[in-house]
Amino acid sequence: MPRSAARLLFYVALVALAAAVPLYGDVFYTRLATQILILGMVALSVDLLIGYGGMVTFGQAAFFGIGAYVCGILTLNGVESAFVAWPAAILAAAACAFVVGALALRTSGFQFIMVTLAFAQMIYYFWLSLRQFGGENGLSIPSRNTLGPLSIESHVRFYYLVLVLLIIVVFLSLRLVNSQFGMVVQGIRDNQRRVAALGFPPFRYKLALFCFAGAISGLAGALMANQTNHISTELLSWQQSGNFLGMVILGSSGTIIGPIFGAAIFVLFQQIVSDWSQHWLFFFGLLIVVRILLFKGSILKFLAPSREPSAATAATAGAALPPQMPKAETLP
Amino acid sequence: MSEPLLQTVALGKRFGALTVTDDVSLDVMPGEMHALIGPNGAGKTTLIGQLTGELRPDTGRIRFRGADITDLPVDQRARLGLARSFQITSIFDTFTAESNVALAVQAREPHSFRFWTPAQSIERLRAPARRKLHDVGLAGREDTVAADLSHGEHRQLELAMALATEPQMLLLDEPMAGLGMEESHAMADLLRSLKRKFSILLVEHDMDIVFSLADRISVLVYGRIVASGTPDEIRVNPDVRTAYLGADAEDDLEVLADAAR
Q1: Is residue B50 domain-shared with residue B157, that is, in the same domain?
Q2: Which candidate from A194, A202, A323 shows the least CB-CB separation from B90?
Q3: Is A109 inside a domain boundary?
Q4: What's the structural domain count of chain A?
Q5: Do B103 and A310 touch (CB under 8 A)?
Q6: Complex ipTM
Q7: Which residues in chain B have their CB less than 8 angstroms from residue A201's CB?
Q8: Positive or negative CA dihedral for B112, A55, A199, A256?
Q9: For every one of its 332 residues, what pLDDT tens digit does chain A have, with 9 covering 90 and above?
Q10: Alpha carbons within 13 A on the beta-carbon side of A302
Q11: What is the number of other CB atoms lying within 10 angstroms of the CB of residue B50?
Q12: Nearest-CA distance A182 → chain B (Å)
């Protein structure tokens, strides 16, 4: 199918481009690109919730922060292996998402936005109040985790590791949203009442998606702790949650990969504009408005796979017949 | 005859001071087409809502297939085989017609916590979905995004989804609503073909259809069942005529009179 070939080519070109970043030689840009990929990973998880589950969350930074803290605390206590610290971060974030989701998902729409925000603020102040973990100063970590015999102290090596992990997350997410589970959550996004009437309990499917998104954010948090060697409480702030929403809007929701572009635009824009104005967020606001007004809908919709005709029906699609009701006797 | 498939016992529901369901005892026998008619605002859709589980009755019980389902949530009732179509079209707008029905087919499986295989490539979902689309007359429209289908096609799709769950019983809430002449005839044929294959509770304003198809008709006025019987009994029932007159529904009365002729 030429369309899927074009899509594959697009992905390959993208990965090649990303892989080429360290060749530029300046470690500053490698680190900047690493940050983009990590934030993009969280934005992707927010897109899973918004673009596929129809759940507008304003608290994803909490799970990002939990992942970072769990990874950081373990590392400070002698658990230096990434094979332990990162899964622990993922599990902790997912478990927390389970608890938050189990309560927040009893609401929907605007209430859901406020409840996720409220939980995120609770988690933010929880970490802020813990003096033994740095309180409002955040938590400094002496070194990065180890990957078995492999050191990831090199920024370039760490960048490639993050890139590989992001590719895996993108791949898994694409499988997820197109799976039977994905159809149910997309159904919930379109029409939750109908999904229930068909016999699916919507709550369980939404909660599972919420945990999955929390897990991805937890991994991103662990990576962020390694990237900066310092966990700032800012990671968990509501502004950070808002930033993720901005990235998703910039990069188109419901596309998985779009929010990663959104993260790139966000980080680069911040980098460039904050050089000559400290009010860079003002200009970022303008950017969002322009994005929404000029590119109504998605600029990346060709990547959204859900509308692709299945192979079996593609043949009949060419001869789209006018709708006709059959005579009664043609029914079984 | 055997046990009723669906039965309500003294169902009651109030919204504040307004009694919308007043001591409704109703049953649908296996294979029966039972029509529920009544003027606008009589509480037909509210009653359907209580049967499907979207609304909790204040009093009374609902039994389905011999079990008390009064406290079951919507999805569990659906899994027992109680399917509905909505008065206002309720579909998945961004899905293709086929994917809409495939999701309904998927609802028959024990669960959908399957995260790996692309749903588009699962023939055990797609093949029955295409068959159901063909059955309701949407062959050739499989790949059309649901939002782009016409109103009449939405009604057909709605029905295909209800059928795809392979229900024991269909609750059809005004399947003819808003259909043009030709579409109405086709839908009537479709409903006729469903008769006897499923037990059906049909809420419908089109009296021609109701009187020609239903085995039994119950008339709901102000939340109460004022009459219940065969089409012939209902035609000559004085209470029904008064009820329709009282509800200031001259048109309906004329239709009733037409149907009686």
Answers
A1: no
A2: A194
A3: yes
A4: 1
A5: no
A6: 0.90
A7: 73, 75-76
A8: negative
A9: 577 888 889 999 999 999 999 998 899 999 999 999 999 999 999 999 999 999 999 999 999 999 999 999 999 999 999 999 999 999 999 999 999 999 999 998 899 999 999 999 999 999 999 988 988 889 999 899 999 888 999 999 999 999 999 999 999 999 999 999 999 999 999 999 999 999 999 999 999 999 999 999 999 999 999 999 999 999 999 999 999 999 999 998 899 999 999 999 999 999 999 888 888 888 888 888 888 887 766 555 545 444 443 333 333 333 333 333 333 333 33
A10: 11
A11: 24
A12: 7
